[in-house]
Structure formats: structure tokens, C-alpha cells
């Protein structure tokens, strides 16, 4: 989530699809990583424009970020939707819209908000919808609405994925609800501190869910094997031109783009240090190929190198739509529980993206057999994430408002 599930991060943006600029963001970041950097500026006018164009001095500002501070303020069903829009989704596509009735909320999939070949079976899209429903339920409970979820009331492939009946009851603001506004995907480095096994177990609450389970990968050998598989999948994805292009279109570069679209992946969400983030915003956007290489490098040197543990949500029927929706609810609970305990989480779904891509193109299955060796017999992977204690806080990413997505 991407996501869902935001797992594919690179500090790039739209534009510059052909040749990279002389000084791309990736090149400067690489140089600074070696111990220093020289910033070449064509003139003070150009620098001033980049400061303005990327909001370098005021990151995370503007209406696109207001939902993160206003979600508690809206009452009733619209307030529950305000919680839902802050859920995880693949590439921050926010593939949902909501219909408010007198005593109900219907949740619909917005099929136009997909990632194409990155998610060819729409596995991650439905997981993201499940994440939104979990936040919706938490927001409804906190407002005394007693929400009750019915999945797929019109069938597995219909546009309405959930009907949420509303009643009345005592308002219940749980620790997971309180974490909604602080939950962000953290793509930065994690500390070497291990997450205790009992803490990992406490993050998982499958109550009311039927199907998905969680498998933790913590021992050195399987963790190293999964790390290698994640790097290999990232490399394979970037070599796949269609997957690379379909992922790249969701990157937002300028402040204007962010405020206009209010979705997608942005530099603020890439886990960079304040210094590197500021410098990266002042430079021209990287090319798609440079951005792909940066992501592979980050996957190898930061994401997998500093993961304290991996979590894999599995099922015997990962292609079933209801299972995917319930996996999303479970994933959102885990992320909120982690946030409430000061634990970072990053979605890393490139392996299952390659599994689905190989299945839909008729290619020889290479990633499914390797992943199967790391999981309990009969269980198949739905999604993957890493956890650990963060070295820096994650930043919010843009969101469409509750009113924007309500019909």
C-alpha cells in the first residue's frame, strides 16, 4: 500500500521521462551519502522558484494536508468518512468513494484509481479499500454510530464493496482510533533494536475477521532470504517497462501538483532526513530510470537492511475479494497498533506485484515458489510489510477531503 500500500517509494516526480538532468535528485543524494555535496544553482531566481514550487520551506502544508488535522472535528457519518480517507492505499491512490444514506454508508471502489500493471489483479486496490473500512468503523464507533459491515452486498465484482449500517450506541474512542491521525508509512531507516515477540503478537487483532492470518519473519536466515527476495522483486519490477511506467505516474513533484491532485507519492513521504529532503526539493526531478534505481538502492541499503522484522498477511484464498478486504482491515489495525506503540511500518508489496504480473502475462513463476518456501504450508501471501523502531518520524502525505469523496 504501496500500500495500501505504499512499498514502491522513490523520490522522483513526473516529467523528465527521457534524459535525466545533469544534477538529478538521486545523483545528489548519492553524493551526499558519500560525505558531502556541492549544490549547483543556475541563479538565485531559479533557486527561489524551486523553493516556492516545492514548498521546500513549509513541507506538508496546504489544503491537501488538512485532512490530517481536521479528522476529529467532523461529526456523524461524514466524520467517519473523514477517518476513512486517512487509511493506507497502494501508491496513495485512494481508490474509494462513499455514499451517505439516512442510516448507512456505502463504500465503492473507484476503478479509475488503479496502478495498472503494478496491481494487475487489483489485489492491492481491494486491500486499500479494506483499510478504509477499518478506519470508517473506528470513526463510527467513536461517534456513537454502532457501525455494522456487510461485505460485497451486490456480488464480488460489483462497485459497492461494503454496506455499513449505522445505529446508535455509546461513543467508543479506542487507542487505534486515537492513532489514525499519526499513522503514516515510514520509509526511513529503523534502529537496530529488536521488536519483542510478545509486542509483535500484540499488534495483531483478527477478531471479527475470517480468512487472513499473520506470519512474522524474525529469525536471521528467513529474514535474510525475504530481504533478498524483496530486492530481487524491486529489480524485476523496474526492468518491467510497463510496471515502471504505471507506478511512475502516481508521483507528484511540485506543490501545485500536490494541491491539485491531493493523492500519490511525494518527496515528503520518502523517509529522507530533513537536510536531504530540503536539497532534493531544490533540484530538478529525476528521470524514471534514475528514480527506479534509487528505489532499488533504498530497498537494499535502507528498507531491508534496517527491518527489525517482516510481517506477511497470508491466506489459503488470497484471490478472493472478501479475503482481500478483510486483509486490509487487519493490516490497518496492525499499522494503527504499531503507531500507538511507537513502532514504524512500511508496506513492501513488490513480491506479490511480481507474482501477479507473472500470472497475468503467462511468464514462468519465479517469485511465488521462492516466497512459498518462507511461509507455512498451504498459506499464500497477500501482502508484506516491515516493522521496527524508527530513527525519524514519518511525514503525512496528501489526502482528498471527506466531502470530496462523498456522493
Automatic annotation (TrEMBL):
Q: Outline the extent of the Nitroreductase domain.
A: 181-389
Q: Which PROSITE patterns match?
A: TAT (PS51318)
Region Disordered: start-end pairs:
1-21
Instruction: Note the InterPro entries from the entry.
Output: Nitroreductase, Nitroreductase-like, TAT_signal
Cite a single GO MF annotation: oxidoreductase activity
Top-level taxon of origin:
Bacteria
Protein name (record): Nitroreductase domain-containing protein
Q: What organism, scientifically named, is this protein from?
A: Kribbella jiaozuonensis
Amino acid at each position: 500500500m504501496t500500500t495500501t500500500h505504499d512499498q514502491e517509494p522513490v523520490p522522483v516526480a513526473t516529467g523528465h521521462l527521457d534524459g535525466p538532468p545533469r544534477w538529478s535528485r538521486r545523483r545528489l543524494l548519492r553524493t551526499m551519502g558519500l560525505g558531502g555535496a556541492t549544490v549547483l544553482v543556475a541563479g538565485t531566481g531559479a533557486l527561489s522558484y524551486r523553493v516556492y514550487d516545492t514548498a521546500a520551506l513549509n513541507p506538508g502544508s496546504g489544503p491537501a494536508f488538512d485532512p490530517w488535522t481536521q479528522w476529529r472535528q467532523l461529526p456523524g457519518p461524514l466524520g467517519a468518512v473523514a477517518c476513512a480517507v486517512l487509511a493506507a492505499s497502494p501508491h496513495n491512490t485512494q481508490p474509494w468513494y462513499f455514499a451517505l444514506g439516512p442510516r448507512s454508508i456505502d463504500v465503492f471502489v473507484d476503478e479509475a484509481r488503479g496502478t495498472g500493471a503494478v496491481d494487475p489483479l487489483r489485489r492491492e486496490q481491494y486491500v486499500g479499500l479494506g483499510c478504509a473500512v477499518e478506519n470508517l468503523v473506528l470513526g463510527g464507533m467513536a461517534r456513537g454510530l454502532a457501525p455494522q459491515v456487510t461485505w460485497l452486498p451486490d456480488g464480488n465484482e460489483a462497485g459497492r464493496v461494503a454496506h455499513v449500517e449505522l445505529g446508535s450506541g455509546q461513543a467508543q474512542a479506542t487507542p487505534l482510533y486515537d492513532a489514525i491521525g499519526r499513522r503514516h508509512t515510514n520509509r526511513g531507516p529503523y534502529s537496530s533494536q529488536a521488536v519483542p515477540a510478545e509486542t509483535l503478537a500484540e499488534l495483531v487483532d483478527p477478531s471479527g475477521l475470517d480468512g487472513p492470518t499473520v506470519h512474522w519473519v524474525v529469525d536471521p536466515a528467513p529474514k535474510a532470504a525475504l530481504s533478498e527476495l524483496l530486492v530481487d522483486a524491486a529489480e524485476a519490477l523496474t526492468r518491467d517497462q510497463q510496471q515502471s511506467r504505471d507506478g511512475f505516474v502516481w508521483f507528484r513533484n511540485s506543490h501545485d501538483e500536490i494541491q491539485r491532485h491531493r493523492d500519490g507519492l511525494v518527496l515528503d513521504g520518502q523517509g529522507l532526513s530533513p537536510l536531504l529532503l530540503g536539497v532534493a526539493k531544490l533540484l530538478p526531478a529525476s528521470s524514471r530510470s534514475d528514480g527506479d534505481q534509487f528505489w532499488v538502492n533504498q530497498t537494499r541499503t535502507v528498507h531491508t537492511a534496517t527491518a527489525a522484522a517482516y510481517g506477511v498477511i497470508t491466506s489459503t484464498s488470497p484471490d478472493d475479494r472478501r479475503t482481500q478486504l478483510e486483509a486490509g482491515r487487519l493490516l490497518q489495525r496492525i499499522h494503527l497498533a504499531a503507531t500507538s506503540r511507537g513502532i514504524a511500518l512500511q508496506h513492501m508489496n513488490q513480491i506479490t506485484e511480481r507474482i501477479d504480473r507473472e500470472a497475468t502475462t503467462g511468464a514462468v513463476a519465479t517469485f511465488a515458489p521462492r516466497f512459498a518456501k518462507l511461509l507455512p504450508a498451504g498459506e499464500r501471501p497477500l501482502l508484506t510489510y516491515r516493522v521496527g523502531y524508527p530513527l525519524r518520524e514519518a511525514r503525512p502525505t496528501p489526502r482528498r477531503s471527506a466531502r470530496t469523496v462523498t456522493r
